[in-house]
Amino acid sequence: MESALKDLSTPTGGVEDVYGEDCATEDQCITPWTIAVSSGYNLLRDPRYNKGLAFTERERDAHYLRGLLPPVISSQELQEKKLMQSIRQYDVPLHKYVAMMELEERNERLFYKLLIDNVEELLPIVYTPTVGEACQKYGSLFKRPQGLYISLNEKGRILEVLKNWPEKSIQVIVVTDGERILGLGDLGCQGMGIPVGKLALYTALGGVRPSACLPITIDVGTNNEKLLNDEFYIGLRQRRATGQEYYDFLHEFMSAVKQNYGEKILVQFEDFANHNAFELLAKYRTSHLVFNDDIQGTASVVLAGLIASLKLLGGALCDHTFLFLGAGEAGTGIAELIALEISNKTNIPVEETRKKIWLVDSKGLIVSGRKETLQAFKKPWAHEHEPVNNLLDAVKAVKPTVLIGTSGTGRTFTKEVVEAMACMNKRPLIMALSNPTSQAECTAEEAYTWSEGRAVFASGSPFPSFEYDGKLNIPGQANNCYIFPGFGFGLVMSGTIRVHDDMLLAASEALAAQVTEEHYAKGMIYPPFADIRKISAHIAASVAAKAYELGVATRLPRPADLVKYAESCMYTPNYRSYR
């Protein structure tokens, strides 16, 4: 039987479709396999195949469901309507999050149907900002495993642990060690909410099959005293492993992943502390297919907004001066990608293009006089300048046209800072990127009000539209969700084996190209999320095209129309008919 089913396999999504689930058209029947054919009560408890009241009369007879369901037969659309009404009755976002997670655990396709069809409403629920609170309370919310927990207790046995996961054809792993969850700090093992949320978006926004996604939390302890003293904490009760012990453990993990899943498995690092994030990306980017969303994904989505904003600001990217508040992995990652893009467009060495970009950290403007005490990843941004101790003075000294916040500290773009930007620029670009909403450097209302309606504004978490002087301003959301689902899907569908910076630039340009004149008229520098599946297909196609150009794509021959190929590979959550 298995060999016969293998003959039906397709390259859809880059993984062999052993059970014929994806090579069948939506009007063809499939078999709900687990270890054997799933039927009866077990079928209703299998989230991958459960359809609830949508099972037809024939399916109820064929799969021994008579009496296990009420007699009514409901369409998926009616189920969706009912559930959205139920979710909207909750006033507390965390309650909506719990309701969505419970739905995913009992009916996978309906979960993704809701998320895809109501993405603008539900994205802040299943991911930032609500997921931050969910991580803080994950110990109390935990009911059943949604991914793999690999702790120091499994040292020397990580390959064995990976084999415990029931799905074998994994395409994408999102992994965290929980040390720097959003702007909330060290949440240890409870950071699992981040990989779970990211991979839900890989499916809903990027089209990667849910069965090909694996969330993983690496538990090396936590330095969060509150968690260590919490009787409901679900992780190791010890302080974090560091140094050689930490890196040896991560190396065992990376080696086991490659051994178990092969060369083309995408490993996305998520919410690691700055020092580890840079180290891990540098160490494994030449030997594994790795991607750090905090460094590379954030950089790509911000660069896309900058490219799009040129229609409103005027000039080319090289004509602008950039000032960052925050010099961690997000800030330096964005800065480096901006410098690379300017270098590519002007043929000026990247060492020179970096001089258009200035960074402020907790000790003030990063200048050459501080070089001896700077961390390695900050040193390229130490330019010749006298010391400047605070952001307002840095704005006055550098005279930036673009102000970008990645500090993780709320309300640091004060009225004086925004007014200074507006004083020296006709249309200042202000990007308050820190998450969650409470940590944003300023609100959209503050940016528009203090700049007298002239600012072009974008943030990391969503803000409502704001009317100033009779004009409705729609703030942009520089959300990584624009980039990483399509970027990762482009790597998977082309069988890419390494990530190159040029792929990030290609993704940025593809996203910027989706902003229309209608959007610009509303002050938008990002397209609406309602179009995210189409946007992801274009990003995936651009990333795949660059991979083929660079010779690192292994899925041959190259499809003639990569956009159409991407759309055809995308997972769709519509119910299937069962034999």
From TrEMBL:
<feature type="binding site">
    <location>
        <position position="271"/>
    </location>
    <ligand>
        <name>a divalent metal cation</name>
    </ligand>
</feature>
<feature type="active site" description="Proton acceptor">
    <location>
        <position position="198"/>
    </location>
</feature>
<feature type="binding site">
    <location>
        <position position="270"/>
    </location>
    <ligand>
        <name>a divalent metal cation</name>
    </ligand>
</feature>
<dbReference type="InterPro" id="IPR037062">
    <property type="entry name" value="Malic_N_dom_sf"/>
</dbReference>
<dbReference type="GO" id="GO:0009507">
    <property type="term" value="C:chloroplast"/>
</dbReference>
<keyword id="KW-0479">Metal-binding</keyword>
<keyword id="KW-0521">NADP</keyword>
<feature type="binding site">
    <location>
        <position position="180"/>
    </location>
    <ligand>
        <name>(S)-malate</name>
    </ligand>
</feature>
<dbReference type="InterPro" id="IPR012301">
    <property type="entry name" value="Malic_N_dom"/>
</dbReference>
<feature type="domain" description="Malic enzyme NAD-binding">
    <location>
        <begin position="295"/>
        <end position="548"/>
    </location>
</feature>
<comment type="similarity">
    <text>Belongs to the malic enzymes family.</text>
</comment>
<dbReference type="GO" id="GO:0046872">
    <property type="term" value="F:metal ion binding"/>
</dbReference>
<dbReference type="InterPro" id="IPR012302">
    <property type="entry name" value="Malic_NAD-bd"/>
</dbReference>
<feature type="binding site">
    <location>
        <position position="294"/>
    </location>
    <ligand>
        <name>a divalent metal cation</name>
    </ligand>
</feature>
<dbReference type="InterPro" id="IPR036291">
    <property type="entry name" value="NAD(P)-bd_dom_sf"/>
</dbReference>
<feature type="binding site">
    <location>
        <position position="435"/>
    </location>
    <ligand>
        <name>(S)-malate</name>
    </ligand>
</feature>
<keyword id="KW-0520">NAD</keyword>
<dbReference type="GO" id="GO:0004473">
    <property type="term" value="F:malate dehydrogenase (decarboxylating) (NADP+) activity"/>
</dbReference>
<dbReference type="GO" id="GO:0051287">
    <property type="term" value="F:NAD binding"/>
</dbReference>
<feature type="domain" description="Malic enzyme N-terminal">
    <location>
        <begin position="104"/>
        <end position="285"/>
    </location>
</feature>
<dbReference type="InterPro" id="IPR015884">
    <property type="entry name" value="Malic_enzyme_CS"/>
</dbReference>
<feature type="binding site">
    <location>
        <position position="479"/>
    </location>
    <ligand>
        <name>(S)-malate</name>
    </ligand>
</feature>
<protein>
    <recommendedName>
        <fullName>Malic enzyme</fullName>
    </recommendedName>
</protein>
<dbReference type="GO" id="GO:0006108">
    <property type="term" value="P:malate metabolic process"/>
</dbReference>
<dbReference type="InterPro" id="IPR046346">
    <property type="entry name" value="Aminoacid_DH-like_N_sf"/>
</dbReference>
<dbReference type="InterPro" id="IPR001891">
    <property type="entry name" value="Malic_OxRdtase"/>
</dbReference>
<dbReference type="Pfam" id="PF00390">
    <property type="entry name" value="malic"/>
</dbReference>
<comment type="function">
    <text>The chloroplastic ME isoform decarboxylates malate shuttled from neighboring mesophyll cells. The CO(2) released is then refixed by ribulose-bisphosphate carboxylase. This pathway eliminates the photorespiratory loss of CO(2) that occurs in most plants.</text>
</comment>
<keyword id="KW-0560">Oxidoreductase</keyword>
<dbReference type="Pfam" id="PF03949">
    <property type="entry name" value="Malic_M"/>
</dbReference>
<feature type="active site" description="Proton donor">
    <location>
        <position position="127"/>
    </location>
</feature>
